[in-house]
Amino acid sequence: MSLYDIYSHPDGRVEAVKQGWSWPAVFLGGFWALSKRLWPPAGAAFLIAILGWFTAPFLAGQGIAFETIELAHMVIAALMFRVFGAYGNRWYATKLQPEGFRRVSKVSDIDASRTINE
Fold it and tell me: What is the pLDDT of residue 98?
């Protein structure tokens, strides 16, 4: 059973943020961060991707085997997606607080949608 932190804004908006691992952040990475308006993680994800695209031909020209370059890119991507999964929800919760949201409760996944709709 998952736990959610419920955040409320004075204007009536309510957000539920799951505690712990974020599968959407793992699979969508920078696009997930963009959808949550998490600009630094989104920028980092796209910067890593762009650097990978541009460094591959350079490294291949230096005599490094393509398989080695490909393996390095896969390891870096796997680490990046792991970081997104582990920290994504925490980043989002941290972003909500300066926007005026306050944590009002903690609920189970069964109660999260009911709490938001009330």
Answer: 94
